[in-house]
Specification:
Structural class: mainly alpha
Helix content: 55-70%
Radius of gyration: 11 Å
Shape: globular
Number of helices: 5
Order of helices and strands: HHHHH
Strand content: under 5%
Largest sheet: none
Distance between the termini: 20 Å
Number of strands: 0
Length: about 70
């Protein structure tokens, strides 16, 4: 569901296991979050944004379209 998160992980050479560990999640929980079965917490979103650097926005990662 969150293809831009996966794209940024690939661009930055990050595995699912690496990002799950940074988010303090199990790999199965991270997979459920990526698929949209479980929502990301704000604290996890902040960590993702910091992992990918200043060029990545919340709107891009989570594909939020302006109203």
């Amino acid at each position: 569901m969150y293809r831009n998160i996966l794209a940024e992980m690939t661009r930055n050479g990050m595995t699912r296991a690496f990002v799950a560990k940074k988010l303090n999640l199990s790999l199965p929980s991270f997979r459920k979050k990526l698929s949209g079965q479980i929502d990301f917490k704000m604290s996890e979103i902040k960590i993702l944004l910091s992992l990918f650097g200043n060029n990545v926005s919340f709107e891009y990662l989570f594909e939020v379209k302006p109203a």
